[in-house]
Amino acid sequence: MNYDVAVVGAGVIGSLIARELSRYNLSVALIEKCNDMAMGTSKANSAIVHAGFDAMPGTLKARFNVRGTELMPEVCKTLNVPFKNIGSLVVAFSDEETETLNVLLERGKANGVPNLEIYDADKLREVEPSISDEAKGALWAPTAGIVCPYELTVAAVENAVVNGVEFIRNYAVEKIDFDGDVFTLADGEKTIKTKYVINTAGVYSDEIAALIGDDSIKIIPRKGEYMLCDKSVGSLAKHTIFQCPSKMGKGILVTPTVDGNLLIGPSALDIEDKTDVSTTASELADVLKAAQKSVPTVSTRAVITSFAGLRAHSTNDDFIIEPSKKNDRFFNVAGIESPGLSAAPAIAEYVGQTVAEYLGAQAKTDFVPER
C-alpha cells in the first residue's frame, strides 16, 4: 500500500486533517490502531467549544483556539453535526477570583476573542437562575458553544472517505523506517509506504515520534472523570459554567450537552497508564461537590452514568504542531489537550494546507464538502 500521506490516529484532530487533505490531489491513508475512529480522547471529553480567553497570548493554544471556534459553526453545519452556540460563563466566588475575571478578560482581548463582558451578580443570576448565591460575578463569552465530539469525528472520517481517503483500522504502528525518500510503516504483519507522515496519535504521539528517533515529545496522560445527568435536569445550566482556572486545567464545569443532558466534570489527575479510563467513587464525589459550588441543586439522583477520558498533556504546556527536527517529512501534531476540540478545525486547516504546499499538491475540482 503506497500513499502520499499517512495520518496516524483517527481522533478528531487526525480525522479533520485527513478530511482537509482530501481537498487535494493526494493519496491519503488515515490509520487507526482501534476498530473505529474516536476511540480515545475524542469520545470522552467535555464537548466544549471554548471562546479562547484562557490560553496565554502568543501560544499555539490561543492562536488555534480562537480560529477553531470561528470555524466550528460552519464546519458542523457542513458536516451535519450538532452544534449549539450557547456561550460560557467563568464564575467568581471571591474578590480574588473577581480579579481573575479581569485578567481573563484582558487575556481574551489580547487573543482576539470578541464581545467578552464582565457580569455582576445580578446579571449573572438573570441569565443563570440556578447559580449559587455565593457567586459574585462572571466573565461572559458569547462565542463559546457545545458540540458532539465523536459525531464530529465520525462525520469528518465519512466525508474524508467520500473524497478518496482510505481509512485503515486495527493497524497499530510498531515500526517506522525511512530510506531517504519513503517511510515504511509496519504493524508486525503488513507494511504501508508513504512519502509523508502526520502524527496525531493523542496520548501515544510521543511513542509514535520515538519510532523515528524523535524523543523531543513527552506526553503525560491527564485523567478526567465526569458524571452525566438525565435530561430532566438538563436545563439547570443554560450556558457552560466554569469556575476560575488553575494550573491543572479549567476546573469543574457544569454544562448542557447537545443532546439535552447535563454534564459535570472533569477531575484532573496525572497518571502513567495510558489505558486507564476507570472511574473512582472518591474522584466522582469530589467532582459532584465542586459542581455543587456552582449549581447547588445538582445531585447524584440525576446521574445516569459516569466516564473518564485522558488528555494528552505535553510537558511544554502548549500544542506541538510542527515538522519533526529528525525528519521534515514527519509532522508532529501532539499535546493536543484542552482546548484541542475547539482548535481542531483550525489545526486541520493549517496542517492540511502546510502539508499540501510542501508536497506541491493541487486542489481538487470535485471535492465534496457536505456530508
Give your account of this protein's structure.
This protein is of the alpha+beta class and 371 residues long. It folds into 2 domains: 2-43 and 150-218 and 317-358, 3-Layer(bba) Sandwich (FAD/NAD(P)-binding domain), CATH 3.50.50.60; 85-144 and 220-314, 2-Layer Sandwich (D-Amino Acid Oxidase, Chain A, domain 2), CATH 3.30.9.10. It contains 8 helices and 20 strands. The chain has helices spanning 12-21, 60-79, 95-111, 121-127, 149-162, 205-210, 281-294, 340-358, and strands spanning 2-8, 28-31, 48-49, 83-84, 88-92, 117-120, 137-141, 145-147, 166-168, 175-178, 183-186, 191-199, 219-229, 240-243, 253-256, 262-265, 269-270, 303-314, 320-323, 330-334. Helix 1 runs parallel beside helix 5 (149-162) and helix 1 (12-21) packs parallel to helix 8 (340-358).
CATH class of the largest domain: Alpha Beta
The total strand number stands at 20
Q: Name the beta content range.
A: 25-35%
* Main sheet specs: 8 strands, mixed
Helix content: 25-40%
In round numbers, the mean pLDDT is 97
Number of domain units: 2
Computed Rg: 21 Å
CATH superfamily of the largest domain: D-Amino Acid Oxidase, subunit A, domain 2
Order of helices and strands: EHEEHEEHEHEEHEEEEHEEEEEHEEEH
